[in-house]
Amino acid sequence: MNLSEIIFKGYVPIVLSWLFPILTLFVAAFFEPNIQIGVLLLLLLAIVVGMLIPGIVISWLIIGLTTVGAGVLLFGYLVIPVNDKVILLVAFPIEATLVNLVSNWLLKWRSLGPNIASIHRYREHYNLDTKLLTSHNAEKVYSKEITAIKSYPVYNLSMNITEIHWKNWQQFGLKSIFETAFKRHSEPRLPSTAQINH
Length: 198
Fold this sequence. Notes:
The protein has seven helices and two strands; from the N terminus they run H-H-H-H-H-E-E-H-H. It is mainly α and 198 residues long. The protein starts with a helix and ends with a helix.
């Protein structure tokens, strides 16, 4: 997740979930006291619903309540100015959606908290683009295999090494997969099987 995604999915809903009720209550201050109380209660209900109810249920609540509210307020026999009706219809859906986005974002980051050390460890040992071991791990595996081969020459152990080179890695801004696969060691190269048999 890059910085723009973090800002867009996290900080923008947080700011909007605070600004929207403040602006709505500021606008509602110019209306009748009954409308002010209604808007305040709708905003409080939206905050509670947004924090406690899952997003899919909130979607259906918004659809249902907005439909019923629009039917009663716009088509029913209520003598209320149109501005008052609009603010009553808009207050709940927008605030409930914003609070739900914020609560989902905070829960997502909260669940990452205890696992942050294992995430860093994973990133050190695996290339995130290719899901392969990094050169550090490849060197460790290589040195263990060389030690085993040298320690037990009677068993005629051998090792196959495959080097992967991604030809056009520059266009994706990636390093080579193993950064020259294995660094050259000062150890002499093991004899090939053809040389051993002769």
